[in-house]
Amino acid sequence: MDELVSLVNWSRGQFALTAMYHWIFVPITLGLTIMIAIMLTRYYKTGNEEWKTMTKFWMKLFIINFVVGVATGIILEFEFGTNWSNYSWFVGDIFGAPLAIEGILAFFMEATFLAVMIFGWDRVSKKFHLVSTWLVAIGSNLSALWILIANAWMQYPAGTVFNPATARNEMINFWDVALSPVAVNKFLHATTSSYIVAALFVISVSSWYLLKKRNLFMAKKSMLIAAIFGLISSIMVIFTGDGSAYQVAQKQPMKLAAMEGLYQGKSQAGLVAIGILNPKKDITNDEKPYYFKIEIPYLLSFLSNRDINSFVPGIEDLIYGNEEHNILSAEEKMARGHIAIQTLQEYQKAKKANDTATLAEISKKFDPNTKEGEQFVNNYFKYFGYGYLNDPIELVPNVALTFYSFHIMVSLGFLFILLFIIILIYVWRDTIEKKKFLLYLGLWSILFGFIASQMGWIVAEVGRQPWIIQDLMPTVAAVTHLSVSTVQTTFVLFAIIFTTLLIAELRIMFNQIRKGPDNFKK
Amino acid sequence: MFEQLSYNALQGYWWLIISVLGAALVFMMFVQGGQSLIYSLGKKEPQLSLILNAIGTRWDLSFTTLVVFGGAMFAAFPLFYSTSFGGAYWLWMLILFTFILQAVSYEFRNKARNFLGAKTYEWFLFLNGLIGTISLGVAVGTFFTGGNFVHNDMNFVSWTTNWHGLEAFANIKNLLLGFSIFFLARILAILFLMNRVDDELLYVKSKKQLLINAAVFLVFFLSFVFAILLGNGFAVDPTTQLVYLEKYKYFNNFIELPWMGTLFLIGVVLVLLGIATPYLKNKKLETKGIWFAGFGTFFTVLALFLCLGYNNTVFYPSLVDLQSSLTIHNASSSRYTLIVMSYVSLLVPFVVAYIIYTWRKLLKKKFTADEISESDTAY
């Protein structure tokens, strides 16, 4: 058993490693393409060579960043199969589709027009070049759309039904998968927050030029575009963040409880603005959950259920159950999960024995269109994944990691808004180059952008453990059965390769920035 | 529209798409082939830069096609995705590692302060050209020769050897295909360079290289074809769904589905014609070999893939439990998912059209040494 736990941890580690490296580069790609397209449009309209130089400069940085995103991205796609092969079969019928659509619809678009964007300056017409650049922006954001739909489905498996004959979940409604409220929110939140990171990237580089008193036209114009783009994105992030939190509250209450360090549920719950958790606290003891906290009254209840008086369940309610609020205990869910798994095993036994009568009878249970099926699916199959767990404690994610990640992300998000506004004011007054302190802040802001962005994914992914598919499949059941040492070896190899590429990328990037837009050559 | 098709027909349609992607992928591997030639054709400048820029303009194509091939397999035949990727772990990891290296190398190679030095990135590209092609060939070889896996009641896979895919390199047929693809990729690269690069010295050297690579390719490829056609194949009984070994199965497929056999033959002839063009005393044709060999490669690989999926054939045999073998029927997605994906597939011709359109625009001018040294976007 320890071997299995270790295997799951290393496999998760490898996926997290790849995803986190990937997510250093992707947010910049998503937002920078749009800003580049805006700059190129300015050049197209005005014919001003300064805009062209500027576009070329940011494009250069974009490509250096883009290729590492591509290199890490290909691994992610294949890692579903290599390290989560049981998962790949169990839900491949649903999960594979968005990935394939992403490839057909978005990747080719992105790659093809990227080539035109890079090499097309003198080889194609100005108009076609501009259109291609916009298509790169659209293509990269489209590829984010499909993978985020796939991720959202893992958090909220909509539009699907379990087929006992194939022992897998099958898609019954594509639009329920693609347009589920979780998917829509996830896409909007991930892209708009990425735009903020990209805006901070542009601000950071521009701040450096202003501090060095170089390339002032480009730096100021870039800063203006980035501050406006960042501010608009920030406003969208507030809405999409609120939407995401609401979805989490509705669909993944345990994640929400972990985000807030909420052990005992309550009505009229306040949202923790700042807090320090008591590290000794866990579900098995009576320690105080917090050393210290400042709450905004009623806000958690309001965010969760759009009602300040509503009840928000805590970790203990979700583990031990709460009759008053109709929450089943984890043990009850596990028992029901066992029954669902047993029913499936009976089905498979009957299949082997060619017992058609039993097969027909059990099939009805899995068919949500029959009355019997509806009851079985809602009361038993819904908890299928719980049947794989041994101990209710396994249902509690890492509270501290989820809590701090969430609060750091949100706090930084609000600080970025402030930064964008202040920068905008001084760029507008054209006194920004005199504001040294602000420029230093701008220079370092990108680091905090990365932190906030990574924290967001930690909340989303660590917060939903142990599930790989919410309530249906825990990571233990999904993992490929390899030896631990095999996964350790590839983990180390990936860590070495990705880190080397990151170092190379940063050195090249810094060197390009130092040389500036006037000299692209070696 | 697709709702009217039977489940079997949809599975056949998706195997066709997979085959088209596989065929396109092998054709696009001319990029890898070119990378494997940098130490023979590109020993000196400007030839090295010419090679890397000519093929580098479209390096993303084979890369993207590989990604889409993986995605399409996941969506249409998830049992293959879970079985092969999870089981033949090291084989796929090897392929992936070389593709990570490729993705950054073009862009980073000629940049200052690139940490590893230009030579290292060139070596990465070479590695991708060598190991990427051979390993992918070996991986496709396992479609014919099989893997060591069993499925349980939940269709969860377990691999019965600890080599996890490395054992595929011990199979002679896999190796024959691996090296065939490697040398084919080099042939395609040479023909592509002859067509796209305007450099006398490179042309002369290419012509010499072509002959050697073509000879070696033919030895490997013909051995593979004979080994496959004259050996046992894995067949499935359409009524009982039982898998069994059939003598000359793949040969029989080509005979029983004559259009497939014809496609295969036309493909092979076109490849040979492509190789021959530079040696024909015809000024018009001498640089057009890539067209013949390109389409030839596409048709040949297409026919080989189709041969695995159609006519009650197993496309991924299990060597330890014959009944765990994968066919396009037991490995596929549900009917609904295939229908949805089929609608998406209607976009493929549109995608191909814009790829060709932009390709023509970008590659209108031949690559010359002067142009590259002046360009600020050259690799």
Keywords:
heterodimer; A: 522 residues; mainly alpha; 3 domains; two-stranded antiparallel ribbon; B: mainly alpha
Structural class, from secondary structure content of chain B?
mainly alpha
Radius of gyration of chain B: 21 Å
**Mean pLDDT over the full residue set of chain A:** 92
Portion in strands of chain B? under 5%
Radius of gyration of chain A, CA atoms, in whole angstroms? 25 Å
Number of strands of chain B: 4
**Number of strand segments of chain A:** 8
Distance between the termini of chain B: 46 Å
**Whole-number total of structural domains of chain A:** 3
Order of helices and strands of chain A: HHHHEEHHHHEEEHEHHHHHHEEHH
Shape of chain A: globular
Q: Largest interface, by Cβ-Cβ below 8 angstroms: which chains and how many residues each?
A: A-B, 85 and 75 residues
Provide the domain count of chain B. Answer: 1
Euclidean distance between termini CA atoms of chain A:
55 Å
Quaternary organisation: heterodimer
Low-confidence stretches of chain B: none
Shape of chain B: globular
Mean pLDDT of chain B: 92
Which structural class is indicated by helix and strand composition of chain A?
mainly alpha
